[in-house]
């Protein structure tokens, strides 16, 4: 692929001054591909962690333990009411200062990498919203449905896992789609803790090559494409899982 596009972009630079160096310099192209791969991984793992936290937190909110409910409510208020950028900095520089380091033979590396801190921070941030989204979906499931499951000797966990949660997931999909799309865009903030994703990588490229407009255009189009694909996929899932009487 690189060999087929490199001559065009090199000629474009020579004739017009539009310097898309990432498409004709092999070194910059490899940096670009690596940054794109890390961005996609960051988006995927952050979304999965936020979904896991959302499902678990919503289930805890249905428990009878006031202590557990209070813990989840406190978590929601804490992470929903603070900026994700501040949370990233807190996790990396605050909590990161107390994590052990590994001797790499003359120098030390933190046991938890900046990528892992970014996934944890962003996943926890998105999960705070997902808990409330799933909770509203659970409350929208008719009580008669859960009572029917209990009459069949389902335990509370089985009722939640096999009956309530699947229905709540369908009901919650429109709001969940909005939150996951927003979380995908928020992952671009990971550059502040030196995660070598797209924003960080292209920042290095335009610093080395003085081609800010071109790299900003690439960065803009990258997120437009990725976020549009995520939104389109979730909308397709929403239509396929729609149930008459439960969701539109």
Characterise the protein shown here.
- The chain has 248 residues and is an all-alpha fold.
- It has a single domain (2-241), classed as MetI-like (MetI-like fold).
- It has 9 helices and 2 strands.
- It has helices at 2-16, 26-61, 66-80, 84-94, 114-140, 143-151, 156-186, 198-209, 212-241, and strands spanning 101-103, 108-110.
- Strands 1-2 form a two-stranded antiparallel sheet.
- Helix 8 packs antiparallel against helix 9.
- The longest helix is centred in the N-terminal third of the chain and has 36 residues, at 26-61.
In short:
The chain has 248 residues and is mostly helical.
- Please state roughly what percent of the residues sit in beta strands, choosing from under 5%, 5-15%, 15-25%, 25-35%, 35-45% or over 45%: under 5%
Rounded to the nearest angstrom, the radius of gyration is 22 Å
Poorly predicted regions: none
Broad shape = globular
Question: What can be said about the biggest beta sheet?
Answer: 2 strands, antiparallel
* Helix percentage: over 70%
Q: How many distinct helices? A: 9
Give the CATH level 1 class. Mainly Alpha
At the fold tier of CATH, the topology name is MetI-like fold
Number of structurally distinct domains:
1
* Mean pLDDT over the full residue set: 90
How do the strands line up in the largest sheet?
A: 1-2
- How far do the termini sit from each other? 43 Å
């Amino acid at each position: 692929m690189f060999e087929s596009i490199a001559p065009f972009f090199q000629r474009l630079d020579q004739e017009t001054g539009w310097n898309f160096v990432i498409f004709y310099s092999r070194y910059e192209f490899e940096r670009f591909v690596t940054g794109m791969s890390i961005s996609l991984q960051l988006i995927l793992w952050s979304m999965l962690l936020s979904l896991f936290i959302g499902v678990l937190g919503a289930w805890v909110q249905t428990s009878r333990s006031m202590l557990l409910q209070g813990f989840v409510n406190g978590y929601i208020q804490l992470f929903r009411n603070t900026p994700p950028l501040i949370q990233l900095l807190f996790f990396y520089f605050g909590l990161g200062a107390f994590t052990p380091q590994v001797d790499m033979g003359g120098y030390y590396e933190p046991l938890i990498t900046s990528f892992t801190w970014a996934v944890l921070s962003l996943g926890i941030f998105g999960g705070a919203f997902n808990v409330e989204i799933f909770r509203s979906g659970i409350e929208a499931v008719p009580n008669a449905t859960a009572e029917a499951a209990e009459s069949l000797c389902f335990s509370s966990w089985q009722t939640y896992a096999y009956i309530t949660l699947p229905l709540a997931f369908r009901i919650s999909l429109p709001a969940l789609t909005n939150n996951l799309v927003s979380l995908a865009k928020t992952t671009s903030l990971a550059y502040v803790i030196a995660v070598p994703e797209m924003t960080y990588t292209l920042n290095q490229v335009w610093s080395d090559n003085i081609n800010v407009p071109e790299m900003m255009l690439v960065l803009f189009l990258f997120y437009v494409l990725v976020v549009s694909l995520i939104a389109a996929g979730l909308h397709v899932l929403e239509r396929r899982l729609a149930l008459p009487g439960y969701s539109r």
